[in-house]
Amino acid sequence: MRPKRHDSRTYRSGFEVAFNKILQEQGFNLGYEISVLAFTSPAQKRRYTPDWTINEGWYIETKGLLDAEGRKKLILIKEQHPSIRILIVFQRHQSKLYKNSPTTYGQWCTKQGIEWCGFEEKEKWLNFIKEAQGSST
What we know:
This protein is of the alpha/beta class and 137 residues long. The chain has helices spanning 14-25, 68-80, 105-112, 122-135; strands at 31-32, 37-41, 44-48, 52-55, 58-63, 85-90, 116-118. The strands form two sheets. The protein has a five-stranded mixed beta sheet with strand order 1-4-5-6-7, sandwiched between helices. A two-stranded antiparallel ribbon has the order 2-3.
């Protein structure tokens, strides 16, 4: 049996654990999966829970894998909630959408107008948090 890599009662992945650790080291204590955004997928009403809530309307989603279902969901959220800002932080933004795809996760987001950065771009996601916190004052 394979050992567990993270505590599933608190976070869904080891990447989220690592992300939260850096947030706390930087003095940020963001709410994890505390917001729920309703959205409608063709012929079904669904809900999306962003990983991190900074302020109302400002969210961070940490992604290790961006599969077809996840891409579809991001597009629907963007279309149905145009006033919110979601920054996607990729564990590996150079990963391809699928085997032999010419497109990386980052390139796909850029094409779709979705804000993103790599996990290693710590200054970018920390500045996003600071900008969001400054917008509420």
